[in-house]
Amino acid sequence: MPVLAKARSFLRNLFLSRRVEVDLDKEVHSHLELLIAENIRAGMPPTEAQRVARIELGGIEQVKELVREERMGDWLHSVISDCRYGIRQLHKNPGFTVVATLTLALGVGANTTIFSMVNALVLRPLPVPDPQQIVVLAFQQGNGGVGHQFSVPEYRDIASQTSDAFSGVFGYWFGIDGLSINGRADRILTNYVTGSFFSTLGIKPLLGRFVVPGEGETPNADAVIVLSYEYWRARFDSDPSIVGRKVLVDGKPVIVIGVTPKEFYGISTPLNIQAYLPLGMLTLEGNAPDFMQNRTLRSMSVGARLLPGRTVAQSGAALAMVGHRMAQQYPAEEKETRLMALPELRARPDPDPNNTMLLISGLFLGLVAMILLLACLNVANILVVRATIREGEMAIRAALGAGRTRLIRQLLTESILLALIGAAAGLVLGRWVNYMISSVDLHTDLLVRLDFPVDWRVFAYTLGAALLTGMIVGVVPAFRASRTDVNTLLHQAGRGMLSGKRRLRSSLVVAQVAGSLVLLIIAGLFVRSLKIAQRSDLGFDPQHVVDISMDPGEIGYNEAQGLAFYKTLLDRARSLPGVEHAGLTSSIPLSYYGDADSLTIEGYHPDAGQRQPRAMFSVITPEYLDTLRIPLVSGRSFTEADRANSPYVAIINQTMAQRYWPNQDPLGGHFRMGRDPKRSIEVVGVAKNSRVTGVTGDIVPNFYVPVEQHYASGLTSLQTLVVRVNGNPAATVPELEGVVRSLAPDLPAFDAQPMLRAIDTLNGLLIFQFGAVLVGTLGGLGLVLSIVGVYGVLSYSVSQRRREIGIRIALGAPAASILTKVLREGALLVGIGLAIGIACALVASKVVESFLTVSPSDPVTYVSVTAVLTAAALAACYVPARRATKVDPIVALRYE
Amino acid sequence: MLILKSLVAGEIHGLGISRRIQQITSGTFVIKPGSLFPALHRMEEEGWISSFWGDSENNRRAKYYRLSKAGRKQLEVETERWGRVSWAIAQALEAS
Fold first, then answer.
1. Span A297-314, mean pLDDT?
2. Backbone angles phi, psi at A448, to 5 degrees
3. Which helix (H) or strand (E) holds A12?
């Protein structure tokens, strides 16, 4: 019975609230009447009886309110009525609502945008069972840099000796291949995987089967391919009969055996892998058949799954043992090798213990949190003003029996409601910005997945931000409003106590100015870096150069056919009108891919603890250096005489010459590459340094080898045709595409674009542009918010002091002195804000130091940004100050 | 407990309850409406008492309260608990 009664009362309170109210009202009134009747019976005169009865009752409405608070479901009831009342309030003040909602929407939207990106890049676990068990391996030799890629023999050592730490170890090798069916070829990003890849990840195929353990161990065996869901849908229209079909990969027949699940994009966030082949099929790409045995051909990423219940740290012991054994067994190749494992989430994009991704993510989240804080401060400001206006209302509520907590709760409900509306708008805004970012042209056809889905994390984050915003925005005004003393207020008719409130509002302004200055300075540093990077000497001349890339291996050409194709291509390109030079290279500078190899240099012995020599390299044709105007410092260029059967030669850059032939003439020196240790290569020339990996930082060792001697020494037989024209490079693009098509109709040619665009990558200038635009937008937002804040506070203060100003004017104060007085007040706030802001910026900018080409305390940026902000803030002060001088003393004194 | 006890004798209205308590405790407890009504409503929601509208002695409409089965049980429980507590306090005071 009691449970039933409770439920009944709860429902009745909720749905029949009117009847319950009427009942309560009647009951209290009848009680009063009974009391009066009793008093009359006791002999009191009627008026006296009524007075005594009312005193005993103690206020009809208060008693009713006390009963209401006892009711079951009262909290729910009051939340609903608070919301209803809040909506009515917002509806009644559309101007306030729109301004506050927009302000909060900007703040929340910026947060949603950044958080979605951070979420997709570093927070979302892989879509595999128990993703927290997946680790990525890396190694370090001596004190050298951290290596992310292993050779196949190293992988085998690790896999066979770590069964006490890992339940499985897998490896994968990136490939770019041509997949063709019915005469149409696509260029796809692939992973050549060990048989343990899918079984260790523990995912199930959507269709057919995966590459299984045992497959992929023999070169050129198991000609099978697994397609990604997305590629299967896009290319094969989700055709379920695809399993068992034959396709051509790099011109050789391969059987489709399966399709991955929908949410699986490979494990190399943010890359989007389109197909998986067994490791042994690397022969498709023209790799030397010894890739399975060559211990220094390090191109394989290695991952593992921890045994259940083991931690990453616990696997360290097993890995240390393997590394130690490897170093003992192969003293030449594995000198001082130390292995390490990193959780997959900490290994994006590369397994590096000094991963800056988290730091950057944290920085950006901090910056946008600041924006949200600025937005909150503005809205809080407006609410404080409104609270003053509503003091009368609050006093009446208190008089009618609303408790203090009840009042705070109602005001908080209102501000949280406001924040939720703002957040909803912000979420939409954030989605739109994310969409814009996803469609940023990264100037490559390579498939990078810049897709930032809204999942529960993004949603929870936004909701959390909204609730927090509502609290921050509402809590101070709510507490202030609820503290009002009923009596004084009802008598005073709404002239609040000002000084305390002004101090609060002033500190809000100081915080806003400081916050926006930090944002603007960081934005300014990015912009300055961009300007400097744009003017910096790249060491090559990208003006008037066109690029177009292709890999004849993708349609099955062998080395002889490929070289013949390239020769004709160069001849045809040179015969085009306006073409000055044409050359080939396996990778263009500042692009997304390039080759590197470890070297053995004759006469150079690294000191103990020093890393084995390593350098970037490009496979080129003789005219390439002329095309990019990279001059030789000494020695000769390649010639037609440098052929496959003549001595192997190389041209090295200045850094490589200085590092590995210190204080001697490198010409005539010899070295060997890790992937082809049998051949000795002679240095025949030294080229001037040019930028290869990025526009900032030190220039790394780099060398060039002729394509005739190294047809597929790069990742693949891929080559980029670079052509210097004396006209508009963009106009030459279609002509070059036409040439390639006429020579090999099936061959996919890609990244056909002027070189200025091609080097505008995340390695090149794009990162600065990205940073400048992103932080610049945030800084601009911050500026607007703080200007509005300064303006708001000062005009409020002026309007509150009309009387005082009126008296001053009446007593003969000149307009100028009023103006300076108000301006001085504003300038003081702005000044304090600027000082705090500069101090904070000096600390915050250290975090982005690695992205900058200027010092993080670059005086030009600091001075100019501070000047801009000061000017804007003072302009915002001037308007209310000017208004203050216009105060009519008569009106001001008569007011109130 | 006192409210429940006051209802054992029969159904009465709010003022009646307050007067009866005053009477049976010889004026020690005077329950003001501000405490009485919230308590009555809570007990009604707990299902210990039920209410209906009736006519008072001098023909006024008033809300009457009646003890329910659950309320009787609750009274026993509370009486027993109170007995224990007061006995314990009495013991404690005598002890020294």
1. 89
2. -100, 135
3. helix A2-15
Contacts of A242 (CB under 8 A, 6+ apart): A207, A227, A232, A236, A256, A259
CB contact under 8 A, B14 and A56: no
Shortest CA distance from B34: residue in chain A:
A63
Count CA atoms within 13 Å of residue A221 on its CB side.
9
Checking A639-644 for CB contacts under 8 A at 24+ apart, the result is A642/A706, A642/A708, A642/A709, A643/A708, A643/A709, A644/A708, A644/A709
ipTM above 0.85 for this complex: no
User: What count of other Cβ atoms lies within 10 Å of the Cβ of residue A767?
Assistant: 19
Buried residues in A19-36 as b, exposed as e (16+ CB within 10 A)? ebeeebeebbebbbbbbb
Is A63 at the interface with chain B, CB within 8 A? yes
Q: Name, in order, each residue with C-beta under 8 angstroms of A787's C-beta and a sequence gap of 6 or more.
A: A872, A873, A875, A876
Side chain identity at A805, as an amino acid letter?
Answer: I
Rounded to a whole number, what is the distance in Å from the CA of B33 to chain A's nearest CA?
6
**pLDDT band (50, 70, 90) for residue A434:** confident
Structure tokens at A544: 């008037």
Q: What digits encode the pLDDT tens for the residues A725-751? A: 988 888 888 889 899 889 888 788 888
Q: Which of A172-186, A273-287, A399-413, A473-487 has the lowest mean pLDDT?
A: A473-487
Calculate the average pLDDT of chain A.
82
Contacts of A10 in chain B (CB under 8 A): 45
Mean pLDDT of A28-46: 81
Helix (H) or strand (E) run with residue A275 in it: strand A275-278
Q: What is the mean pLDDT of residues A649-676?
A: 90
Q: Do the beta carbons of residue A640 and residue A672 sit within 8 Å?
A: no
In the beta sheet, which residues pair with residue A616? A596, A702
Q: pLDDT grade, residue A224 (50/70/90)?
A: very high
How is A505-539 classified by DSSP, letter by letter?
Answer: HHHHHHHHHHHHHHHHHHHHHHHHHHHHHHHS--S
Q: What tokens were used for A512?
A: 């806003």
Give SS3 for A579: strand
Query: Which chain B residues contact residue A31 at CB under 8 A?
Result: 13-15, 33, 37, 62
**pLDDT above 70 (res B54):** yes
CB A139 within 8 A of CB A146: yes
Helix (H) or strand (E) holding A703: strand A702-706
User: How do residues A489-525 score in pLDDT, each as one tens digit?
Assistant: 555 544 444 445 567 677 878 888 888 888 888 888 8
Which residues lie below 8 Å from residue A75, measured CB to CB, with a gap of 6+?
none
Nearest to A240 by CA among A274, A285, A281, A206: A206
B32 touches chain A (CB under 8 A): yes
Q: Where are the domains of chain B?
A: 2-95
Using an 8 Å Cβ cutoff, are A195 and A215 in contact? Answer: yes
Q: Cβ of B2 under 8 Å from any chain A Cβ?
A: no
**Beta strand residue intervals within A27-143, DSSP E:** 134-141
pLDDT at A654 over 90: yes
Those residues whose C-beta lies under 8 Å from the C-beta of residue A355, and which sit 6 or more positions away, are A342, A346, A347, A348
CATH topology of domain B2-95: Arc Repressor Mutant, subunit A (1.10.10)
State phi, psi for A233 to the nearest 5 degrees: -70, -45
Question: Residue A1: its pLDDT value, please?
Answer: 46
Report whether A767 contacts A442 (CB < 8 A). Answer: no
Reported in sequence order, the residue ranges of A106-242 that DSSP labels E, i.e. its strands, are: 134-141, 146-147, 166-181, 184-193, 207-208, 224-227
**Which of chain B's residues have a Cβ under 8 Å away from the Cβ of A72?**
45
Alpha-carbon gap, residue A327 to A210, rounded angstroms: 35
> What was the pLDDT predicted at A436?
79
What percentage of chain B has pLDDT greater than the value 70? 95
